[in-house]
Structures are given as structure tokens and as C-alpha cells.
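Q: Make up one entry.
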Amino acid sequence: MKTDLKISFEFFPPKNQKMHQKLWNTLNKLKIFYPDFVSITYGAGGSTRKRTHATIKKLTYRPSIKPIPHLTCIGDTRDSIRKLAINYWKMGIKSIVVIRGDQENIKLTKKKKFVTFPDGYNYSSELIRDLKKIKDFEIIVAVFPEKHPESKDIQEDIDNLKRKIDLGATKGITQFFFDNNKFYEFVNILQKKNINIPIIPGILPIINFKKLIELAHNCNAFIPKRIRDLYKGKKEYEFELSIDITTKQCLDLIKNGFKNLHFYTLNRANLTGKICSNLTKRKIIGKPYDAFWS
């Protein structure tokens, strides 16, 4: 079935051989949706840099898949990050997701302020500036419809986004969210500020609702009461419930003109795959949905 919907996926690099096999099994199942690109994360505290690079390198041998690495300001020097970027360009990687990064594995100050690595980058805007000097990378940045947890207000986030755009960012992917109205309000604010780069909604299928509550709190992502109520006492139906909730969220986004969706897969195929199947009317490259996923 022909559609102008563009789907992309995020994966994290595997830690061991078992997770390595799981990642490629997941990718092989999800590639039938012809993803616009797949992004590979950098890991908390920059902990997976080598594995991210290795995964990206392997993906370059699959011409049907466009891999995009994450680059962060965490855990490395400016010179080392620049060398990595040059190596990516030589490998044929022309797009990079640039974020400041998460310091979960790095000791923070009492106020949980960002701690700059020695001779490292303070802000993602600095990294964007240097990347554009190295080569003409397509720069994708993170945006936060409900405000970054460390920002004082949404205006500070918008100012930061404008700074990144002025330095060369041309596309944004949002933090996950569960209330589409908050996302629409955010996009409207950007338009009023004459910020018109494509903003791709980031979608997180709910795998474990109990764990999600803490994650959403840490990421400043609001979970509507109607969703919380649906999960009360229905643990055995979480999988089916998650498919229904996320499918409806995506259909509403598509109805409102957002034809690019980015899925945070957590390296799992079944939940994201069933949602994507629903969005493509249960037909994938001539194969019926039930035959593929059974």
C-alpha cells in the first residue's frame, strides 16, 4: 500500500554477543517498513562510543538502511570527537544527531549541573559549530515539547534551539511525549517564533508502565490521567493496551499533518512492529501482517 508516511527507528548499541544478535534480529524484522533512517545512540555518559561506531560501521554495509550516529559532549575531548566525525564522513555518514548528552554515569555536583569533560564541549551548540566547520553534515537535534528538565522555562529551550539552528541544525526529533496537545502547542509556539525546521515526533511504545512512570518523571514527560487509568489492574493486557494507545497517538499525529514518526524501539521488534503494521493498514510489501508476526 502506497503511503507518504516516513518511519525511522532508534536503537542502542549492543553490550554483548547476545544483545548483538537481538539487535540484528530486531533490525531484520523492522526493515520491512523501509525506515527513512535508523539512529544509534551514544549511551549514558558516552559509555558506548566504540560500540556505537562499530554498529554504524556495520550498518554502512547495508545500502538499504541509512544509519545516523548520535554524537554527544560527554566523556571525550573536542579533538577526539572531531576525529570521530571525520571518520564518519569518510565512511559515508553525512547526518549526525547532536545532543549534549546524559551524565548518568558521571559524578554530578550537588545541584546536578552539567560537568564538562576536560578539554570537552560545554554545549551541543559548540559541537554543531565545529561539525559544520569540518564537513557539511546534516545536523539533527533534540527538542523538548514539555521543556528540558534542566531548563528554567520553555523560552530557554526555544532560545537554545534557535542558537543551534543558526549554527547549522536543520531538523529536530522530540523527546517522547504522551499528550499530543502539548506537542501541538509547542509546534505552534515555534511557528510564531519563525522556527520552521522539520520537527519529527519521537514515539516511545509503552513496554513496562511501572518503569515508564519513573522514566517520564525524569524526562519531564507528562502521562495523561486517561492513560494512567487504562493501566490500572491490567498488567496481563499491557502489550495489547500499548499497541492500541500508541497506534491512536500516531494516527492523531498523522491526521494533523505529521508524516514523519521516529520510534524509540529499545531494541525490541514486536511492539514497534505491530504499531507500524497498524499504521500501514496491515499490509507490508505484499505480506499480510498476521503472517509475518505469527
The radius of gyration is 19 Å. Residues 105-111, 282-294 have pLDDT under 50 and may be disordered.
